[in-house]
Specification:
Shape: globular
Number of helices: 2
Strand content: 25-35%
Structural class: alpha+beta
Radius of gyration: 21 Å
Order of helices and strands: HEEEEEEEEEH
Strand order of the largest sheet: 5-6-7-8-9
Number of strands: 9
Helix content: 10-25%
Largest sheet: 5 strands, antiparallel
Distance between the termini: 77 Å
Number of domains: 1
Oligomer: single chain
Length: about 190
């Protein structure tokens, strides 16, 4: 079949438009290529990215590190400062649970930096799973000695920002100092 000039350009346009819809932009993350991305959240309108990055490949000491800031710019916050710091063993905590109807699953990795608590949250609504599973991710923060409701809440632009957060549980357990309570809420820790 021979295409005319107009047919050729129409097919080229259709192909270009369909490729645009199929193309997935690369993930904008603070994590390095050899690290696992456990949480990755773009905040609007600032465009800053919060990432929980880690490594557990058997060749290095396992670690997690929270990084926050604009992509390609100096980071605003890194916790702990160095991934090889022994403090990393006791930095992160993990909690998860379901509501009483078993249709809302919450996963949280939280940590304290100076006088502020940060919680990376992944919420999955299973109430309409036959239709669609809804995901939501957010970051909450509050000052030590106050309630989370007195702090702030940052919503992630990506619904799936926390979809890999559950897998951080085994790494946090593995990193924890012997005898350390790692599966806890901020109110469980004195």
């Amino acid at each position: 079949m021979q295409l005319t000039g107009i047919q050729f350009w129409l097919w080229a346009l259709i192909l270009a438009v369909s490729m645009e819809f199929c193309y997935a932009a690369p993930l904008q993350t603070q994590c390095l290529k050899n690290e696992t991305v456990y949480f990755n959240c773009t905040l609007r309108p600032s465009g800053k990215v919060a990432s929980l990055c880690g490594k557990d490949d058997g060749t290095t000491v396992p670690y997690l590190q929270y990084r926050f800031g604009k992509i390609g710019k100096p980071l605003d916050l890194v916790v702990p400062k160095k991934s090889e710091d022994l403090m990393v063993r006791d930095t992160f905590f993990f909690t998860s649970g379901k509501n009483r109807y078993d249709d809302l699953v919450t996963v949280q990795v939280w940590f304290r930096n100076q006088d502020t608590y940060y919680s990376l949250d992944s919420l999955t609504d299973l109430s309409h799973v036959e239709i669609q599973t809804d995901h939501q991710a957010e970051i909450s923060y509050w000052k030590t000695g106050s309630k989370p409701s007195d702090g702030g809440l940052l919503n992630c632009a990506e619904e799936n920002a926390g979809e890999n957060l559950q897998s951080a549980e085994s790494l946090i357990e593995k990193m924890a100092s012997p005898g350390r309570q790692w599966n806890a809420t901020p109110w469980d820790i004195k």
